[in-house]
Amino acid sequence: MRGTPNGGAGHGVTAADGGLMSIGAVLNALRQEFPEVTISKIRFLESERLVEPRRTPSGYRKFSEDDVERLARVLRMQRDHYLPLKVIREYLEAVERGEAVQLPVLGRQRDGEPAPEPAEAPSAGRIGRDDLLAAAEVDERDLQEWESYGILTPAADGGYDAEAVTVASLVRELGRFGIEPRHLRAMKAAADREAGLVDQVVAPLRRHRNPQTRAHAEDRTKELVALTVRLHAALVRSALEVRLP
C-alpha cells in the first residue's frame, strides 16, 4: 500500500497538519455521491487495507485528499461493478505498482448485462458468514438472533449481500443505546416496502430490451434509493421535533 515520507500512512501526525480531514469530514464529503456510506463503512474499508489514514498522537484518524479519492474509487467499484473488496484491493495495488491491469469483470456491470462467472462461484459482491462476523465484530449468537427477526438473510449460496456488513454494524451500534433487534422489525418491514416501491418504478426499465434503457434503470434505482433514505431521515427528525417539549 501507499507510504509516506515518515515511513507509512499509519504514522501519527498532528491535528494542525494542513490538508488533512477528520473521519466525520470525510463522511460528509463522500455522502455527496454515496448517501448511504457510514463511519462504520469507512472503518471497515480501513480494516481491509483499502485506505491507510494517518493518526494523530492521540490516535485520531486524519485523511488526505488522496485518501478520500481512493475511498470514493473503492465505493464506485463496489457500486458500479459489484466487485469484492479483495479484488478491488489487488487491482489498486497492481495499479500503484505501475502494472498495466484491466478492471476485473465480475457480476452485473453498469449496462445491466450479466457478465460470465466461473461455474459454482459465489455471486460477486457477496461476503461469507465468517467474514461478516469478523467485519461487523459480532458473534454467531448475535447473527442468529438478527436472522430470526429477518434483519439479515443469507442468500441461497450461504453468502450475504454487499450491505450486510453495514446493516450488522449499525444494528450493533444501536444495541449500545438499548435498541434490541426485536425493536427493528418495523424498520425492516418499512425498508422492504420502500424497496418494493422502488422496484415497482424501475422494473419496466430493467426488462427493456434496449441495454441503454436497462442502464438507465440502474441509475434511476440509485437515485430513488438516495431520495427514500433522505425522506426517511427527514420524517424521523420531523416526528421527533413534534414529540420534543
Which features would summarize this protein structure in a list?
single chain, 245 residues, mainly alpha, Multidrug-efflux Transporter Regulator, Chain: A, Domain 2, 3 domains, two-stranded antiparallel sheet, 9 helices, globular
Strand content: under 5%
Q: Helix fraction?
A: 40-55%
Tell me which CATH architecture of the largest domain applies here: Orthogonal Bundle
**End-to-end CA span:** 52 Å
Run of helices and strands: HHEEHHHHHHH
Task: Give the structural class.
Answer: mainly alpha
Mean pLDDT: 79
* Assembly level: single chain
Question: Looking across the biggest beta sheet, what order are the strands in?
Answer: 1-2
- Backbone shape: globular
Annotation field: number of helices: 9
Count of separate structural domains: 3
Task: List how many beta strands DSSP finds.
Answer: 2
- Nearest-angstrom radius of gyration? 20 Å
The low-pLDDT segments are: 1-16, 107-124
CATH level 3 topology of the largest domain: Multidrug-efflux Transporter Regulator, Chain: A, Domain 2
Largest sheet: 2 strands, antiparallel
The top level CATH class name of the largest domain: Mainly Alpha
